[in-house]
Amino acid sequence: MKIAILIYRFPPMWCGGAEFASYNIAKNLALRGHDVHVITSWDEYLPKSSFQDGFHIHRVHKGKIRFFSMAFFLINIFFCLKSIQPNIVHVQQIWFGCIPAFFSKKLLNRPYIVYMRGSEVYHMSFFWRKMSEFLLKNAGKVIALSEDMKRELQKIYCGEILVIPNGIELDNYKNLQKQNFRVSNNKIIIFVGTLRPVKGLIYLIRAMEIIHIEMENTILMIIGDGDERKSLEGMVIKLHLEKVVIFNGEIPNKDVPKYLVQGDVFVLPSLSEGFPNVILEAMAAGLPIVSTNVNGLSEIIRNEENGYLVEPKNPQQLADKLLQILKNPIQSKKFSNNNIEKVEKYSWKNVIKYLEDVYMKVLVG
């Protein structure tokens, strides 16, 4: 099967959740013998076309004239689809891919599916709500990452919505031993993600102020970078937590398992999420998890089963639950074992099989 995947940004220049999910979908589809073509925006210094990990990458110029650049961009994507002639078009972001996919359906008779990723569902403008109604109606299938996302989508689309979660490469976590990577005798709380307001890090740093009073031998390791880093570093200095909150910066995705396995607990204080891959990575690393109860996170984290859920913007609750885990090794071990068992169903092998079934249903009508 020849499959075209449309995603606005793509590694190596862009390393967010949607980008890595798209990369893993492309790679695993290629491993199963499909002819996979990723169509994305061009990044400086990268070739316009390349072949890696068994799939093709086509990087499309956006144009330089501001008013016409998006129209120019979308037209170029359509012509790229025309050149490839895929059996099916897989859209990863509705605002980016659905318009050229729609025209490829109407003019080239190529069906498309839409796999909604997160923020575009929960923070959709009035214009895109109206556009989405039309574009989703013309899709062969619509997929959400979680039941919560499905419910949100049902507000604008009354057709069938399938639920297929993100996946994880479990082999990356096999045989990783904590003692081989541990660099501190302190208790380690780990956060991994982009440093931006929606991640709720200001509340986590406030929680560390509370935790430090009760457990001085505890540090917070923040892995990632972003626009909010300077203000967060300033906040840490103001609260005299420089030795408690460590900013590691951005690291290669392949090294994330080595950092996660060092930790004693993973924390995600987000104000909004879709289906964050980092939660699956923390589970695969055997970490108990403390997360805010937003959107579909309660579908992954079961309170008091494999972690704790807390209210967003609540430093005291974050601190209380993190301390409960750090002070209770029996509870921590229970959460760890449950996460290692639970994450098995999220392997990319299983996710790709579900996607293949969707593609076939669309193609046979």
Descriptive notes:
- The protein is of the alpha/beta class.
- It has 14 helices and 14 strands.
- Strands 3-4-2-1-5-6-7-8 form an eight-stranded mixed sheet, with helices on both faces. It has a six-stranded parallel sheet with strand order 11-10-9-12-13-14, sandwiched between helices.
- The protein starts with a strand and ends with a helix.
CATH superfamily of the largest domain: Glycogen Phosphorylase B
Characterize the overall form.
elongated
- The CATH architecture category of the largest domain equals 3-Layer(aba) Sandwich
What's the end-to-end separation, in Å?
A: 15 Å
- CATH class category of the largest domain: Alpha Beta
Short structural summary:
By secondary structure, the chain is an alpha/beta fold.
